[in-house]
Design a protein that fits this description.
By secondary structure, the chain is an alpha/beta fold. It contains 17 helices and 13 strands. It folds into two domains: about 220 residues, Rossmann fold; about 180 residues, 3-Layer(aba) Sandwich (Rossmann fold).
Length: about 400
């Protein structure tokens, strides 16, 4: 199998879930190429386990002369896809402009896929990667699939019906996501979405003993942006009256300076450490010392929110008490009083109460954390879910592209 995977950015520090899937597919003997829409992200961490992907990564420059020339070689396809974008996405001028800008690169990608002999194309995220897969499909006819996660489907549903309608399979990472799409995308009410959770390699992750009790160490891992709710966590800790607590924040993002200032204003500077982005190997050590891991997700600007945060899956796989919020598909993993602690998004008092419960009832917390690991092993295991995706690719059958009859011979 020759599999082309399209992502928006590579490397991407926080997207370990994609990299791990790709590594399993390589181990299964798949001939794989990774295409990234944006230029190589030198500022991001390429985790040690994912370094073999670097030699398989390809970038199609959006404005390069060779890219623009591809559009001239496929004028009918370029016009047809442009017309579809304007009809279905035109009311969102910014998104329509971005999609139109992908046409030349997508057509150049189509030529590369044909020359290489790709047998399947998979788009990670329903946004730009799926748009490129959809556009290139009009030239190649190669079956493609899409993975849907969070803001790529929740923020806007324009153009999704077109991209999904020509896809051979569409996967969501949560049952919540599948239900959302059936209700909000035209023509998808009866669509058979593949629900395959994001995963971790449970076999390689030890079930850790409870953290040392000398301090109550807390951990947040992830990007620092509005939908992550880190400001809510800091506000909760400002009134947290248990002694000897510490919080480590591993990650960076557009809200980094704002959150450091908030920490200072709340008088938390001596207890909160902003570590910046960390390699996966370092994160594993942080799990070992932490009494609880928190993902205080909220619904951010423009509807941006989570699917199921991968860091919560990782924390629970390590048998760490996990606190998160009732957002999107998170309750499928974090089940109150069963596998974790669930609060309402933005609920400062509720988050503080959850942390108090973990602090005051360590034996109960350990039992819940063990149940959380059991659930991860059952539904979120990489060995199972990566292979389920691979079977989805192998069983895919090509679907006709919109307008292909009219474009026959003049693509």
């Amino acid at each position: 199998m020759k599999l082309a995977v399209i992502v928006t950015e590579f490397p991407k520090t926080t997207e370990t879930f994609i990299a791990r899937d790709l590594m399993v597919w390589l181990d299964e003997g798949v001939d794989l190429r990774l295409y990234h829409v944006a230029p190589w992200r030198a500022s991001e961490i390429l985790h040690e386990f994912a370094k073999p992907l670097a030699e398989r990564a390809h970038h199609v420059p959006l404005g390069a002369p060779a890219t623009l020339a591809a559009a001239l070689r496929h004028p009918a396809t370029a016009l047809q896809r442009a017309g579809s974008i304007l009809r279905h996405q035109g009311r969102d001028g910014v998104m329509a402009a971005k999609s139109l800008g992908l046409i030349p690169a997508s057509l150049r990608l189509a030529e590369e896929l044909n020359a290489w002999g790709a047998t399947h194309v998979h788009a990670e995220f329903a946004g730009h990667p799926a748009t490129m897969a959809w556009i290139s499909h009009a030239v190649t006819g190669i079956p493609y699939s899409v993975s849907c996660r969070a803001h790529d489907i929740f923020r806007s549903q324009r153009l999704l019906a077109q991209k999904f309608g020509e896809a051979s399979a569409v996967r969501t990472v949560s049952r919540f996501g599948a239900t959302f799409l059936t209700k909000n995308v035209a023509g998808m009410a009866d669509y058979d979405f593949e629900v395959i959770h994001s995963s971790v390699d449970v076999a390689s992750i030890p079930a850790l003993p409870p953290a040392p009790r000398d301090k109550f160490r807390l951990l947040y891992v992830g990007s620092l942006q509005p939908r992550k709710g880190v400001d809510v966590l800091l506000q909760a800790l400002a009134g947290f009256d248990r002694p000897n607590w510490q919080l480590k924040i591993a990650g960076t993002g557009p809200d980094h300076a704002k959150l450091e200032a908030l920490s200072k204003n709340l008088g938390l500077t001596d207890r909160v450490t902003f570590m910046g982005p960390q390699p996966y190997e370092a994160i594993s050590g942080l799990y070992a010392e932490s009494a609880a891991c928190i993902a205080p997700s909220v619904i951010g600007p423009n509807g941006r929110t989570e699917g199921i945060p991968n860091v919560v899956i990782e924390a629970m796989a390590h048998a760490r008490p996990a606190v998160s919020t009732n957002v999107s598909g998170i309750p499928e993993l974090v089940r109150p009083s069963e596998t974790g602690w669930l609060t309402e998004p933005g609920d400062v008092e509720g988050l503080r109460a959850a942390l108090t419960d973990i602090h005051d009832n360590p034996e109960r917390a350990a039992k819940i954390a063990t149940a959380g690991r059991d659930l991860v092993a059952e539904e979120f295991d990489l060995a199972v879910n990566a292979r389920r995706q691979l079977e989805m690719f192998r069983s895919a059958r090509p679907r006709p592209a919109e307008g292909t009859a009219a474009l026959a011979g003049v693509a």
